[in-house]
Design goal:
Four Helix Bundle (Hemerythrin (Met), subunit A), 3 helices, globular
Length: 86
Amino acid sequence: MKKLKNEKELLKKAMEIGQAYAVKSGYSSFSGTDSADDKVEAVYRLLVHDKLLTPLPEDQESSQNFRRRLVKWIAGKLPADHPLLQ
């Protein structure tokens, strides 16, 4: 899979929006002791559960693929002229 430009920043933006969405959906919030991989997986699974994100096949579930799926999701939601997409 081709790496997107600004992938790291896009993931940060996806996590920011995903965590805000989780809190609005009733999730208490993430603790400081949660690992980055746990947070990514939790946001991914919440978005899949709410049908905002297409799930990965079970045999392809991994932390890296969760991250890439979130990056693709946020890239599709941002306006075309957003600085992270340039």
